[in-house]
Amino acid sequence: MEKIQFNSVSYRYKNSEKDVLKQINVTFERGYLISVVGPSGSGKTTLLSLMAGLDKPSQGQILLGNDDLAKMDLDQYRREKISMIFQAFHLFPFLTALENVCYPMEQNGIQKKEALTVAKKLLENVNLVDEHIKRFPSNLSGGEQQRVAIARALASGAKYIFADEPTGNLDKGNGDRILEILKELAHNHDYCVVIVTHDMDIMARADKVYSLRDGALVN
């Protein structure tokens, strides 16, 4: 089974004398909802950036299956293998919900007609119906916008979803709904969902929880 594996990964910012991440050894497998927690400055965002191929380790290697990320086409990796979900949603403001979900598919060469059909189904799967999908993000609630963001993440077909505080701007009811969707994706559809969070509810409901302290990862 394909997985993302960190082998003795350390990271240090340029001109810094201190490692932000220190000798990280961890495997992120499909089928699990995984939470990464830690105080501000512990290295959570850096870990997420490395997983997304936005940065490269100072030492060690990150593997997708048997392939070293450092030797891969990272633009293709980000288009086809991973998707990101952010606390601030990051939807395109001048595209409707439906158009937002179509966008990554069209970027990957899928014809517009097919993209529209798939996008409607993905939005339906996160409980957004016709009255919502034609709206612009500014006319959707926070919970609705986050569900559009999840549908857009699924549109690429990537099986690795990295979420940065995905419930941080939501009330508890909407936050619980988002968490249930992410958990269902992991358990029933073989996704690997990694959530960086301070949310105790997410930590309590995750399959695995890793804690970052001073750049070191503890299970």
Secondary-structure topology with pairs:
Blueprint: E1 3-11, E2 21-29, E3 33-37, H1 44-51, E4 59-64, E5 67-68, H2 74-80, E6 82-86, H3 97-107, H4 112-125, H5 130-133, H6 142-155, E7 160-164, H7 172-189, E8 192-196, H8 200-205, E9 208-213, E10 216-218
Parallel strand pairs: 3-8, 3-9, 6-7, 7-8
Antiparallel strand pairs: 1-2, 1-4, 4-5, 9-10
Biggest sheet character: 6 strands, mixed
Cα Rg: 17 Å
CATH class label of the domain at 33-40 and 74-218? Alpha Beta
Helix fraction by DSSP (H/I, runs of at least 4): 25-40%
Strand order of the largest sheet: 6-7-8-3-9-10
Strand coverage percent: 25-35%
CATH architecture of the domain at 33-40 and 74-218: 3-Layer(aba) Sandwich
Provide the residue-averaged pLDDT.
90
β-strand number: 10
In DSSP terms (H or I, runs of 4 or more residues), the helix count works out at 8
CATH fold call of the domain at 33-40 and 74-218: Rossmann fold
- The CATH fourth-level homologous superfamily of the domain at 33-40 and 74-218: P-loop containing nucleotide triphosphate hydrolases
The topology string of helices and strands comes to: EEEHEEHEHHHHEHEHEE
How would you sum up the global shape?
A: globular
Q: What does this 3D model show about the protein?
A:
This protein has a domain at about 35-40 and about 75-219: Rossmann fold, CATH 3.40.50.300. The chain has helices at about 45-50, 75-80, 95-105, 110-125, 130-135, 140-155, 170-190, 200-205; strands at about 5-10, 20-30, 35, 60-65, 65-70, 80-85, 160-165, 190-195, 210-215, 215-219. It starts with a strand and ends with a strand. The relative contact order is 0.20. A hairpin with a 2-residue loop joins strand 9 (about 210-215) and strand 10. With about 220 residues, it is of the alpha/beta class.
